[in-house]
Amino acid sequence: xxxxxRALLGVIAVLLAGPATASAAQQQAYAAGLNYATPAxxxxxxxxxxxxxxxxxxxxxxSSTPGLFDSGVVSAGTSTPVAGVDKLAPGTxxxxxxxxxxxxxxxxxxxxxxxxxxxxxxxxPNPNNPPNPVDLLPHAAPAALTGxxxxxxxxxLANSRDGASAGPAVTQAxxxxxxxxxxxxQGDFTGTPVESGGTVVGLSGNGSVYALDASTGKxxxxxxxxxxxxxxxxxxxxxxxxxxxxxxxxxxxxxxxxDGSTRWTAxxxxxxxxxxxxxxxxxxxxxxxxxxxxxxxxxxPLRGAVVALDELSGAKTWETFTVPxxxxxxxxxxxPAIDAATGHLFVGTGNAYxxxxxxxxxxxxxxxxxxxxxxxxWQATAGDVFSPNSLTGPDADFGASPNLLRTTGGRALVGExxxxxxxxxxxxxxxxPVWSQTVGPGSAVGGVIGSTAYDGSQVYGPVxxxxxxxxxxxxxxxxxxSADGGPLHYSPTSVANGVVYTxxxxxxxxxxxxxxxxxxDKVPLGAMTYGGVSIAGGYVFVAVGTQSSSGYxxxxxxxxxxxxxx
Length: 566
Known about the structure:
Blueprint: E1 13-19, E2 27-32, E3 35-36, E4 40-44, E5 49-53, E6 62-63, E7 79-81, E8 91-96, E9 104-110, E10 176-184, E11 194-196, E12 199-203, E13 208-213, E14 219-224, E15 234-236, E16 239-244, E17 251-256, E18 262-267, E19 274-275, E20 281-283, E21 286-293, E22 305-310, E23 316-321, E24 337-339, E25 344-348, E26 363-368, E27 374-379, E28 403-406, E29 412-417, E30 422-427, E31 433-438, E32 453-454, E33 458-463, E34 468-473, E35 478-481, E36 494-496, E37 499-503, E38 508-513, E39 519-524, E40 533-536, E41 539-544, E42 551-558
């Protein structure tokens, strides 16, 4: 598997509009990642217009002036007339997709028999200068946080991504409003904002660290580290631990949470091609982080690893490679989970780059967090050899971060989503398989690649290729799956107080009822995102960015209307 930051999205959505008569030419537009060619469609007055949706996602073709014309909801692979076009007078009319507002264009209606040049479409949205999310909805006033922290990528050592009662309730979720936003022009945000003690910390792609007042968004301090970053900091014991993706020498920096001053800098690995994509966690005086490879280059004998650093000094306590000498691959893309009761650390690994593949590739591994000793491993996909020059394997990495969970009978499990499209649960002591559930199709761009959430009742996660969201019971049964598919879904899932949060490539933060999957709200973010959501103190903090030059951290809270106020 290649780092998400270098992965080609590989999905093309096509809007193809063609009039029923032959008097006007067909026009088409494409959406691929951040690029979108705005369609300019010319029709003769009185012509009808069909919308042929050959994307994998649902779209609409809706008039920007309400009520003039609308296709309604057009499912993937279907065609529908755009009602109202045949009633339009000559002129130019703007339209957009109500599910993906950044997809927009223009219809020019001309007198019968005339064939003018297509109209100039509206300007394309610039991914390097996205709209401010706080301007897209009515505001809520700042308020003091009510308790609860989110200090790690996965919220806690179990990678639960569960804000519990610190988030808005189901009845409050439809009233989520922006309170503040913070814009970075030093690279956008693709990790998860972390919060502790009323301070939010965000890490931008160019290696700038921002500490913000959680209730107001006021900048408390900023450190520009000048190195690439694509993960999430960790906060513990008054220190911010910052992962930097320095190729051939990935680093972790320890900064003071109070003022951003440097406490120490540590290089986690010096292999040629070594990189880091996962985020650190802190426990029992140590900082733990995985080692991955920048591009899975088969010419490099790179081995994935897990590293433990001393929390106070940054000195390397141990480094455990995931594959034996003479093998390569086994990159650790995700964030470790730690069972504090047993001192066991769990990670998933990636594929091999050249044959033969070690038995610890595409595997879940358990390590002793104190010594780094390998306690157990279980391989999901054997013989997976995949690199840019060797595409023979299925590329079935474990890219999502593991969750610690329990069956309804109380059996301790470690669960993890795989790019094969399966979510697997293993016995936490032996790594023997307990259950497995296929939640969607596997692919090189990920079956389950966005990290999953667990609230003690269900596991929630994304299907990357289909853009869907699902929920599994603690015993592996599918309890619900969303029907509103969309573009590739790389972002991690979060949950709190009965609400599931998924930011996505549609440019929305979708809130669902955890019990049923019903959509409670769709909050516009103004741009697509790989970023994550944290929930603490009644606030919802969202990172907006897809590795362009500018993005936002934005804070929301529920602000229901006053009783009797309508």
